[in-house]
Every structure is written in structure tokens, then in C-alpha cells.
Batch of 3 targets.
Target 1
Amino acid sequence: MKIVLTCGDVNGIGLETLLKSADVMSSSLYFKDTEFYLSCNTQSLLEYAKKIGYDIEILNERVIVSDHYMKILECDNYSPVHFGKVTRNAGSLSVESLEKAIVHTLNHKFDALVTLPISKESAYLAGFKYPGQTEMLAEKSKVASPLMILFKDDLRVALATIHEPLRTVPDLITKEKLTALINQFNNSLKIDFGIDKPKIAVLGLNPHAGENGKIGMEENTIISVALEQLKTEGVLVHGPYPADGFFAHGDYRNFDGIVAMYHDQGLVPLKLLAHGTGVNFTAGLPVVRTSPDHGTAYGISGKGIASPDSLIAALISAVKIVKARKNHKN
């Protein structure tokens, strides 16, 4: 199996977490037959490692860290490393790294893509035109509606809307979109996670799930209608549930997947419960893509204190999902 990683924003913690993951990548049985590639600029990588006190070597287009090596997919854009700073150079390198990794993965050179976090502000300075990496992946893959799933073990949260301003969310929740999204989630739970009969919970949009129309009508006129249709199609779907009580009372433990109406509704509780080991997975793509559940973390970049746990989980998950898809085909 071949996995390519992007370098993300070189002014953030991404490459630090990668260097810290090297021992696990070389010793874990999960990666027994796995080759790793890094889409990066060699000069930037060497500079980054030196600044955080890592002794690495570049030899024959490979980066050697301790006893582990990764092959380099060389990027042309060099970015000086300025920890915690928004720079156009860092944005240019992060975008080139992502584009190069996507193209090669879509051309079947790699089995999976793991993306390190970018700074959207830096990327925008370099001409990046997408709300996030997920949307760029979708366009390059010619997929109209990718599904963002964040998970930790058996807790899996899918988002009905992703990077949208909160004021626009209600208008984006329609019966048609919701039924399509839940069907997509249901299929991903079967194909990517190997769950034969997934049980899915759906959260309400409004506080208290609308209290039967007293605090909003979307639950009655859109969400419940979509769920009833899905039930007639054989989907094991339940809700809508008030989001606060659903997580506070531990109801999430009774389901294989949870659909949240907007970004923070689903990701705040997931990240609290994941304790820094959550994984972001983009379902609905022809390729497997995972990433750690954190951002560039400029506030701690360059200090040597970033945890690699989420990246390690993302790498292990990429391997598992590739294998799950192959098992499903067979």
C-alpha cells in the first residue's frame, strides 16, 4: 500500500507531528506493507526540522528520520519557515503540495491521501479559491457533494453543511439534500467502515430540536419528513434529537453514525470526546482521504510540544479504510 502525505502549512505544527510519528510509522504492524511519500519542498523540510531540533537526512529523494524513511514528492515552491506567521510563500507551498498529491492519487499512484493542516489565510494569499481542502478535493475528483466525517473509534459525525456561515445554514438544509446526504453516510458506513446495518442518529437544527415548532419549524417540515422517507427505503435512521442532551446523556453511544446540521454542532462535542485523537475523513470520493482533526495551531508551532496522536490515528484510519473498500468489492 502507498500513502502520500501533504506538508500542510510549514509555519504550523503539521510537519512536527509527522516527524514525531516516524517511529510509529516504521514499527507499527498497521504499516507493515505500507510505503509513505511526502509532497513537500526539500529545502523547507530541512529548515523546519532544524528549527525544531530534528536530525533528518535527505538521500536519494528520501527523507530519513531515525530508522524510518519517506520518499519525497518534490514541490517547486520553497517557503522559509516562520512559525506562527501567515505568509504567501507558505500558502503557495501548501497549495502545490495538495495539488500534486491529489493528481497522483487520482492517477492511482497512491492508495490514500493524508493531508496535514493548511492556513486558509496563507493559501488565499497564494490564490487558493476554495473554502477548504475538502472542497478542492471534491472539484478535482469531479464529485459534487463530498461528505465530511469526523470520527474517533465508534463515534462518527457527518456534517450536513461544512464551511458555511451560520446565518446561511437553515436555507441549505432541504429534504432533498438531507436524504441524499444520509444515504451517502449510510453507504460510507457500510463500505468504508464495514458496518453491515448502520444505525444513524440525526440532530435537530434548532435548540431542543425545535420543541415541536415552538423554537423553529425545520425539524417538523424538513428533517422529520426526510427521515420518514429514508425509513421507508430501509435506512435505520432516528431523530431529530436535541444536540445538547444527545451528547450530554451519552446517547451517541447507541449509534454507528451521527448527522449534525452544521460544523460546530457536531465537531465541538466530537473533539472534546476524542481528546486530540480524532480523524477527518472525506467520504464520497473515488480516493481515500483522511487528515488529523486539528489545524495549524500557530500558537504552539515551533515549540516542540505538538502531539502526533491525531495524525497517527489518521494514518491508521487511511489503511483501514483502503482495506475495508477492497473487502467490500470482494
Target 2
Amino acid sequence: MDTPVNSIAVEVLRERVSQRLGKECVDLESYMGGMHHQTYKALMNDRSLRIIRVHCVRARRHGGGITPMTKLPSEVATLKYVKEHTCIPVPEVIDYDRDEDGAVGGEWMVMEYIPGVSLGEKWGEMTVTQKGEAARSIANVWAELLSLTFPAIGSLYEEGKIGQMTFFPSNNPNNMAPPDHRSCGPFDSAQAWLLAVAAEDLTFRPLPERSSFELARRKLVTEFIQDNDLWDNLEAQRLSRITLEHRDLTLRNILVEKEDPTRIVGVIDWEAARTVPLWAVRGDFFKSCIHIMSDGEREELSIMIREIVAERVPDWYDATSNLGRVFSTLLDQAEKS
């Protein structure tokens, strides 16, 4: 349910957390918030801490904020999958509630509390050596994610099943509805996915009007995607292996030890995670970091991460370099068509 943060019924939430966990929640402290959710730190009567994340779209105040119903269920399933199948530190999901009666003001989930601070918060205090070690830790997380393989393109749901692709909520005030879920996959091939992207099947509604030039351009892009000679070879299949993408793996979503910021203790905010071909996964770990690092530092650390990951997942390195450029260019063109 899309509601602004001030309509979250905090007392109702506290009562329901108590009911679901079988012990009293004695306090809910506003912890952190994003454009699409509000997070609380819950103190239980046994002194344990939990994190409660409530879906609430702040952007709704300014228009937009349309959210696919799949967003939070997929995030819950993705956290569970990563917890079970990798060594990447993610919070354990303890409970999830759809808020079907609307009493809380948004669907919510309960997670374990991971003590730590965001890497972005610590960055300005770190030495050059520590920053290099932190970059190496990020590379290890990224490489482990890229080592996962899936049978279809879409998003994760319960029991590791691949279902329709989910998305970030829209911040466009002109949007009135999410993409039609019947057209959002799962897709059994990169070719099928790109055709759906080019056809705007994965675009929020209503669709913008297109000029005759834009429609002609789309036709050309579609014809190129439909060229089977592009896909029917072993090299294309290698570069198009389907993996899991965290779509916002930035310093703010990486929790580190307060005393040792080179050690990652949690990777958070998995909303809109998706399974896509290797060439579609473009890590941009230092975006929105202009205020805490120079362009030179950002470039140097990005190259370091890429080289470390290349040693462990060479297929991704190839897929995101010249060998896979034809595919990533097609994706760019499909998104613009």
C-alpha cells in the first residue's frame, strides 16, 4: 500500500511485531529511510534488537511512487536466497507481513539487526590503505554474486523460483501504473528480454507518445535483436550467462565494522534485484560519492575492483568489455527505443 511516512501507524506496527514474534516490542525507533521505505529499530522485551522495514513511498508526496506489488516479496526472497547460497553477509529475514487490512500503512518485514555503520559514513576517516582493503572486500562480494547462475531472466521469489521481473518504484509523477505483470517475464533468453525492453513491456504506464522517427528507430533495434545469428553461438551463450544483480550496491548500502571499516558485516537494500545476463550487470559502487572522494580516487578504486573480479569471474569481465559490447549496446538501444 503506497502511503507517505506520516501515515504509518507506528503503534499498530509495534503491536503486530509483538504478536508475530511472540514477545513484546517495547520501543520502535526511527532508524533510516529511503524514497520507498521507512526503517525502524525495534527493541524487544528480552533486550534483543530487530529491524523493521515498512514499504512507504515518500515520493508519493510529490507525485509518482507507483510500486509493483512484487517489490517487497521479491526482496524478501532474494535476501533468503543470498543468505542460503552465498557467504555474503545479509540480514536474516525473520518475518514478512503484507498488511492486507491496511492497518499499518504498508507491507513490512522483520530482519535481524546487524551492528555496523555504512561504508559511506566512514569513508572520510579512512586511510588510503583502508580504502584499498575496503575496495577489495567489495570486489569479493561482487564476484560471489556474479558466480551465481540462474535458468531465466526475472526476479527471485520464494524457494528460489524465478518469476516476473520487479522494479524500483517510479518517481515520475506522470506514471499511473506499473508495467503489466503478464509481460514482465520470466524470460528464457536474453533475446526475449531485450525484445520486451524494446517493446516497452517493462515500462511504467501510461506509455509516452512516440514520434514516427522513434517508432522507426525501435523497428530497427527490434530487427537487430531478432537476428538469430547474433545469439546462436557458444560465445554469446557464455557472455549471456544469467546471474544475480544487486542494483544499488553503493557505499551507503554496505555496512562495515565501526572499528574496522575494511570488514563488511552486511549488504542491505536488495529491492529490485534481478537475474540478468552478465553483460547487463554494471557495478557503479561509487556513484553519488562526489562529496567524499575525488574523480581520481573513484576511477582508481573502480579499476581495482574490476581487475580483482576479473580474476574470479572472467566471463563477466569479457561480457562487460569489448567482447560483450554488442549486447550491452543493444540493451542501451532497447531502453531508449
Target 3
Amino acid sequence: MTGFLHDKKQNIDELVARGLHIAVVIPCYNVKAFISQVIRGIPNYVQSVIVVNDASKDGTDQVLSSIIDERVVVIQLEVNNGVGGAVLSGYKKAEALGADIIVKMDGDGQMNPMYLPDLLFPIIEKKANYTKGNRFLHSKELRSMPFVRRVGNLGLSFLTKLASGYWNVFDPTNGFTALDTTVLSSINPENIDRRYYFETSLLVELGLRRSVVQDVYIPACYGEEKSSLSTLHSFVNFPWKLTISLIRRLLYVYFVRDFSMVSLFLISGSAAIVFGTAWGLWHWVDGINKNLEASTGTVMIAVLPLIIGIQLLLQAVVMDIQNVPTQVLGE
């Protein structure tokens, strides 16, 4: 494994010598104890290191001012913008500096720069427009992830698949990512969440543009750092945001940009379920008020549309899975 990564690093060095510009964006909030080590660990083939200090209160700005590295560009935000706002500021700066690929790393030391080549090469080889880490393949390292956080990731991963249309990816809140700069111009930053829904909202936007997204298996790394993401906050806020994203995606992909069998299955399946539910509830309440049992025919009229509707929606899901983007943009 080490030798394989070494070969990839050599190839990246050669590509950088030919003009490939790699930038790393690091959003920072109260990471005074970690940020120096994170920056020191970034390989030399990275030309630009953009550190966005998101109005930290622990003296992170003082640590950043003491770092001597000509690659480092520090953006000081006077007001806290959230991780999404900080990353978007970094993306904008990286694009202005001429970066071809932008990597996003957190400032708390949870992301090992040794795995940068794994994120970069699918984009370099035109196999993906966006790559992201996935901690769920490595069972040994995964045991270091807090249990509640692990369960939350499993649930959110499934909901994110529905909302984004990327049925081939997992671990949506993983912030270790790399992005082909050419796709940035097609994304409206106003649609990107400024807080912890950032990575998921970016996936949704990439899906609407049919960008190719690829998972890269990177072990989890948890130490003394404390995550600012509240598990309760995620459980309360993410589901409704994902629901809105799902509705928006389905309307745009299957009713605005195209009209296909998936569109017909969604309409007919939803209509059948609504009819069966309404019919069943109406006659159930009517039966209670009149103290009468529903006839077999009445029950069947309620049940059959529900069964058919569920089958139609499941078929729509199957076809949606088959519609995952595979053609790299800009190829």
C-alpha cells in the first residue's frame, strides 16, 4: 500500500511540474492546537494552501500569523460564516489562483494527507469530477468512530442517496473531498448550505449537473479533537433539508430537464397511494360512525392501489439508481 501511494505521489509530482495546480482549502474554527500540524503535513506538490479562519475565538489567527510557508494564503472572516461559507470563500480564492483541483481538508487533524493521491487521481485520470472520503470500508479504524455518530451516518447516507441521486456513494458528511475546478462555474453558490449541511447540499448540486462522484476509501482518524457537529442537530435538521432536496431533484431531473418512465411511475404511483389511503380512511371513519364493518370489496379497493402504488415507486427507485451519472463532465 505504501509503495502504491509512493508511485502515485511521483506521478503527481511530474504532473505538477507540467503545470497542474493543486490547492487545499482548510476551513478553521477554534483549531489552535491542530492547525500548524495540519499545514506542515500537506505535501510539497500542493501549490496553494488556503486557510479560512472562520472568526475563531481561541487564538487560531495568532497561530496562522506565525506560520512561515509561501504556499499559505490566510483568509480572515470577521463574522462566522459556518463551514460551508468558509469553504466557499476558499473555493473562490483557489479558483482565482488558477487551481485545477481543489481539495478540502478540515483543520482539526482528522484527515490524513497521505491519502491525497487517492482523492486526486480519479480526477486527474478523468474518471470523476468530485471525489470524497468514505470511512465505512475499514472496520478496524471504524471502531474508533463514536457509536451514535456511526449510526447517524448510516441513516443519513441512505437519505442522501435519495436526495442527491448518487446511489453509489456513502458517508455523506465526510469532509475530505477533491473537486475539479471546471465544475465550480456551473454551481450556484446560493444553493449551497453555509453550515453543516454543506457537503450534502454540494452533492445535490453536483447531481443536478450530472457530475461524476466517486468514493475513496479512507480510514477514520479520531483523536483528541472535538467535532463541532451536534448529533442531535443533525437528526433534527438534516431530514427535512434532505426531503426538500429530494423534491427539488425529482422535479428538476424528471419533470423539467426530462420526462421519462420514471416520471410516469412517480405520478401514477403517488396517485395510487393517495387514492388508496384516502379511500381506506374515508370508509374506515364512516364505518366507525355507522358501526358497520367494511365489505371485502371496499377493503380491496383501498389495498390494491396501495400495493400497486408502492410497486410503481419502487420501480422508479430502481430506474433512478440506474441513472447515476457516469460520463465525466469536460471529458
